[in-house]
């Protein structure tokens, strides 16, 4: 119940953002929501099952291009976005069959290679995707403010949906099974967990929402190029966000997404050409000093404070 | 409850971003410039920055820009978008809404300029693109976008003219193109132009971005026995292609490469192999114009640039400075900072600058320039066309 | 006849790829760390060679040793000071740590050297060897031969020296090696340093072939990845075989399918190989 209540409160609080801010704040909000989706998505396979996936960028790009191609053939937006999720999910199921038997670094590399292959496939099919020339999407006939709000709420709804899925999965047999797999896959198999099926399910979950995020993103910016939507940073940043917020938790990915984007925005304003190094610095500090994320740090800090404090 | 508090703190912080919007100073003109200062395009970003800085410093040293009799200082707000187009779009919106930029310089190249122009169009902010040449950028029906590069075919057509007239023995053309917006567009135009001149295109291949080896393509090229090799790419690609052509002894009568040889980094990196490489660009320091802008003549601009940076300006640097000079002329003409009026002044502009005559077509792309064709001779790019500024004859290989 | 040239292209390119990947493979195989700094290490080596040639006239073939030594020191410090702290953590942690370190190093190089492409232009270029219809670029062949000699040296060090045997012991079984009195942390640092040495030396040798810029680091890294998976991890011969295999695949792929498909092809083969034989061409089955 607590998780659902939190999600509801969070969604409500976030829907107030258009009252507070101008279009740029809404843009930032949309980006945070988008990365929250990607971080949640990664958390299914990377956080719960412990498989270090770099396929997030592949799913995102695949979703973006699926939706863009459908829209260019005149499909309605809602259908195109949904189909993008479906396509990413189907692709994950297929590719998962091939690479989920790999472990550790091998899985990481295979998932990375998936994105590279997709990018080059898009690059070399100019008739369908525009290839290296990129692809234009229809511009929605909306005012600046209305467009900003539409895409903010679309992305926010998707983030809420993804989080709802995360809550459900965490409490289900699937979540339990995935944690078993993370602890010890062989033992999980012996215990009767269908590891292969569970991993594939987690991989598909990590694809479907990322694909839809890509689709919404494509409609939002209405011009996409292969290097942008298959950008390796789209796979790495969600992972850093999850580490930042707390791996395997429900709200960690959201908090991580918010903190990292906020940090980037601040650094970006203050340091013209060293923001990459600043991001690197954060990652290094994070990995070396708080591998369990900020939430855990806060929790352990509180736990340490409590006994010392005076009892009411 | 901790999580709830975190969330509210977070929402509050987001709100704070909104309220930090700077109060617009009264006597400053802010020009927003999203640039790729890091990432794959950073060499280009730095060039543009040099051009913009020279303009802003020159303008401010002369007392700023006069708007209705009152002098305004120029302030350029740079933001790095790390060569990432989505970020360029985001930066454009931030510069307009948060930093309250009066005007915008578009991000580098055709792709990013196209993506970002949608934002400035929606906010009605006049935007000058200093490095976007592809027609697709300007065909969007936008009113606030202006570009200082003529369309790509203006580079190709004079080249094919010179080569086909200069040596009738040149018959077979091989094209090797980077699979990217500008470079692919140039290659497609070249293919069409070559066919139109009755040349035979014996090879047309694309290579992927990030290709580290061209040996096979060049082996194929050698087999095709071209008289004219036309390669497109960015400077790193072209350095490698030139080197690997030499490795396999491919030496056509004509070797054309776009867009790298105009940069001194190309001649430095390829050394003697740069000799006789031909190219075309939108501007060249050898052109001579008498402008009404703050720099005056082309010679004066070259001198000012060399004084500041100790190097001869190339076309990207000159175009960036010209973007500033053109914006200044439009503001002075309009006599106001009102974006719509400045936009109209840009659209109606018809005058000469150090960069060349400036008149924008109905799409906002400049139509008045005649891009020079040049060739590396004696380690320096020398102009071979147009006749008015020609420094040497085109040299054909054997 | 033309196939002989394509074959020669592939073999020469493969030799360069092997040089790029050897150090990366060593670190991955022994430490189970994917060193994402590897590409930047190579670029740094190229800069050492560039400046050594520009200011002191030292030929890159000689400065390869200097670049290697400098990078060894850097690698040793990085491993001893940072990576060793999380060496036992899940693979994701070390991967992301080196990613962060690479962001810092690459950004620092960008500020220090700018992204402008440079190249070492030898006063006396090596030209091309013409063997009948086949052209062999002299600088590539020379760089390849030197890289091969360095690799052979590394192989001897691993086989015959005390430290080399300790490294192999750690690769086989970390705990057992520790029990036998091997200072595992020190061996880790030396291994990482050796990987960086190979990267720096390779970078110096490549400085006469490729334009030099911090922007190239991800390209080198990408090749190292593919080579390692193709050849099998941690073994020096594996990296050689993987490099040559990739060189041939790209060369023939580009010739048959067109240059735009060469990269797609190499990544597709990587995926297929991971599927059917994750241990690589020379690797042992079951190694994770």
How would you describe what is shown here?
Chain C: Its main location: membrane. Chain C: It comes from Aquabacter spiritensis. Chain C: Pfam families: BPD_transp_2 (PF02653). Chain C: It is found in: Cell membrane. The complex is a heterotrimer of chains A (312), B (398) and C (288). Chain A is an all-alpha fold and 312 residues long. Chain A has a domain at 24-232. Chain A is 79% helix and 1% strand. Chain A has 16 helices and two strands. Chain A has helices spanning 2-15, 17-20, 23-48, 56-72, 77-99, 104-123, 126-129, 144-171, 173-183, 185-190, 195-221, 226-229, 233-245, 252-270, 275-289, 293-308, and strands at residues 135-136, 223-224. In chain A, strands 1-2 form a two-stranded antiparallel ribbon. In chain A, helix 3 (23-48) crosses helix 13 (233-245), helix 3 (23-48) crosses helix 14 and helix 5 (77-99) runs antiparallel to helix 11. With 398 residues, chain B is an alpha/beta fold. Chain B has 13 helices and 15 strands. In chain B, helix 2 packs across helix 12 (315-334) and helix 6 packs parallel to helix 7. By secondary structure, chain C is mainly alpha-helical. Chain C has a domain at 12-119 and 137-215. Chain C has helices at residues 2-31, 38-56, 60-81, 91-113, 138-160, 162-172, 174-179, 184-206, 217-231, 236-257, 262-276, and strands at 128-131, 134-137. Chain C has a two-stranded antiparallel ribbon with strand order 1-2. Chain C is globular and about 60 Å long. The chains are: A mainly alpha (312), B alpha/beta (398), C mainly alpha (288). Chains in contact: A-B, A-C, B-C. Chains A and B meet through helix 1, helix 3, helix 14 and helix 16 of A and helix 1, strand 3, helix 3, helix 4 and helix 7 of B.
């Amino acid at each position: 119940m607590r998780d659902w209540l939190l999600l509801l409160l969070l969604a409500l609080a976030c829907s107030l953002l258009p009252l507070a801010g101008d279009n740029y704040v809404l843009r930032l909000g949309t980006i945070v929501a988008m990365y929250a989706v990607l971080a949640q998505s990664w958390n299914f396979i990377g956080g719960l099952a412990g498989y270090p996936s770099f396929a997030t960028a592949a799913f995102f790009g695949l979703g973006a291009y699926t939706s863009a191609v459908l829209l260019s053939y005149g499909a309605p937006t809602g259908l195109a976005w949904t189909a993008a999720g479906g396509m990413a999910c189907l692709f994950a199921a297929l590719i998962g069959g091939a690479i989920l038997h790999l472990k550790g670094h091998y899985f990481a590399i295979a998932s990375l290679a998936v994105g590279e292959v997709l990018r080059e496939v898009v690059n070399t099919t100019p008739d369908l995707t525009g290839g290296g020339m990129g692809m234009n999407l229809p511009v929605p006939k909306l005012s600046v403010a209305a467009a900003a709000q539409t895409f903010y709420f679309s992305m926010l709804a998707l983030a809420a949906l993804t989080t709802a899925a995360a809550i459900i999965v965490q409490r289900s047999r699937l979540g339990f099974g995935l944690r078993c797999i993370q602890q010890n896959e062989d033992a999980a198999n012996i215990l009767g967990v269908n590891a292969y099926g569970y991993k594939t399910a987690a991989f598909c979950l990590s694809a479907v929402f990322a694909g839809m995020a890509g689709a919404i993103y494509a409609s939002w910016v209405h011009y996409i190029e292969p290097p942008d939507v298959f950008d390796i940073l789209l796979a790495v940043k969600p992972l850093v966000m999850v580490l930042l917020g707390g791996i395997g938790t429900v709200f960690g990915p959201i908090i991580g997404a918010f903190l990292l984007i906020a940090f980037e925005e601040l650094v970006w304003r203050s340091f013209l050409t060293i923001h990459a190094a600043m991001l690197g610095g954060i990652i290094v500090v994070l990995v070396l000093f708080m591998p369990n994320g900020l939430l855990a740090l806060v929790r352990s800090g509180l736990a340490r404070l409590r006994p010392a404090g005076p009892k009411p | 409850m901790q999580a709830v508090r975190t969330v509210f703190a977070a929402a509050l912080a987001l709100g704070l971003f909104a309220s930090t919007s700077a109060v617009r100073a009264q006597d400053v003109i802010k020009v927003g410039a999203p640039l790729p200062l890091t990432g794959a395009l950073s060499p280009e970003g730095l060039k543009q920055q040099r051009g913009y800085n020279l303009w802003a410093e020159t303008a401010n040293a002369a007392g700023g820009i006069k708007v209705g009799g009152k002098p305004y200082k120029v302030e350029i707000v740079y933001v790095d978008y790390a060569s990432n187009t989505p970020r360029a779009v985001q930066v454009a919106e931030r510069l307009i809404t948060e930093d309250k930029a009066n005007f915008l310089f578009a991000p580098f190249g055709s792709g990013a300029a196209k993506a970002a122009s949608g934002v400035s169009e929606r906010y009605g902010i006049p935007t000058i693109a200093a490095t976007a040449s592809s027609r697709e950028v300007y065909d969007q029906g936008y009113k606030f976008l202006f570009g200082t590069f003529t369309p790509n075919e203006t580079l190709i057509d004079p080249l094919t003219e010179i080569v086909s007239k200069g040596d009738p023995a040149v018959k077979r053309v091989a094209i090797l193109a980077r699979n990217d917006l500008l470079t692919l567009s140039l290659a497609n135009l070249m293919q069409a132009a070559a066919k139109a001149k009755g040349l035979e295109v014996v090879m047309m291949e694309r290579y992927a971005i990030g290709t580290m080896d061209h040996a096979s393509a060049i082996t194929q090229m050698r087999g095709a026995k071209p008289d004219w090799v036309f390669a497109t790419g960015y400077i790193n690609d072209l350095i490698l292609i030139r080197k690997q052509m030499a490795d396999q002894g491919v030496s056509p009568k004509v070797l054309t490469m776009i867009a790298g040889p105009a940069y001194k980094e190309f001649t430095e990196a390829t050394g003697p192999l740069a000799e006789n490489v031909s190219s075309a660009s939108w501007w060249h320091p050898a052109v001579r114009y008498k402008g009404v802008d703050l720099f005056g003549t082309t010679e004066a601009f070259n001198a000012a640039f060399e004084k500041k940076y100790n190097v001869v300006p190339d076309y990207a640097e000159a175009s960036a400075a010209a973007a500033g000079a053109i914006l200044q002329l439009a503001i002075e003409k309009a006599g106001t900072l009102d974006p719509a009026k400045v936009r109209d002044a840009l659209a109606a502009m018809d005058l000469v600058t150090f960069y060349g005559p400036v008149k924008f077509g109905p799409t906002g792309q400049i139509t008045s320039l005649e891009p020079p064709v040049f060739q590396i001779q004696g380690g320096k790019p020398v102009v071979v066309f147009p006749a008015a500024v020609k420094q040497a004859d085109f040299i054909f290989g054997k | 006849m033309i196939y002989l040239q394509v074959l020669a292209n592939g073999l020469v390119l493969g030799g360069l790829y092997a040089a790029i990947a050897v150090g990366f493979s060593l670190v991955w195989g022994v430490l189970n760390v994917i060193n994402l700094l590897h590409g930047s290490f190579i670029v740094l080596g190229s800069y050492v060679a560039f400046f050594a040639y520009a200011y002191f006239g030292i030929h890159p073939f000689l400065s390869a040793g200097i670049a290697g030594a400098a990078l060894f020191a850097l690698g040793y410090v990085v491993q001893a000071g940072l990576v060793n702290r999380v060496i036992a953590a899940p693979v994701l942690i070390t991967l992301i740590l080196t990613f962060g370190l690479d962001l810092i190093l690459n950004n620092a190089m960008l500020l220090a050297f700018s992204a402008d492409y440079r190249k070492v232009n030898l006063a006396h270029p090596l030209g091309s060897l013409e063997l009948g219809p086949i052209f062999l670029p002299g600088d590539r062949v020379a760089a390849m031969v030197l890289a091969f000699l360095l690799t052979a040296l590394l192989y001897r060090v691993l086989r015959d020296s005390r430290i080399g045997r300790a490294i192999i012991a750690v690769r086989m079984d970390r705990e057992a090696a520790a029990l036998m009195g091997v200072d595992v942390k020190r061996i880790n640092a030396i291994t990482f340093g050796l990987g960086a040495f190979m990267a720096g030396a390779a970078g110096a040798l490549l400085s006469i072939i490729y334009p030099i810029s911090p922007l190239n680091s991800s390209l080198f890294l990408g090749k190292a990845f593919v080579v390692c998976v193709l050849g099998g991890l941690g073994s020096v011969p594996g990296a050689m075989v993987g490099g040559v295999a990739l060189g041939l695949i790209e060369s023939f792929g580009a010739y048959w399918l067109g240059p735009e498909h060469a990269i797609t092809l190499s990544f597709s083969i990587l995926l297929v190989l991971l599927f059917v034989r994750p241990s690589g061409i020379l690797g042992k089955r079951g190694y994770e």
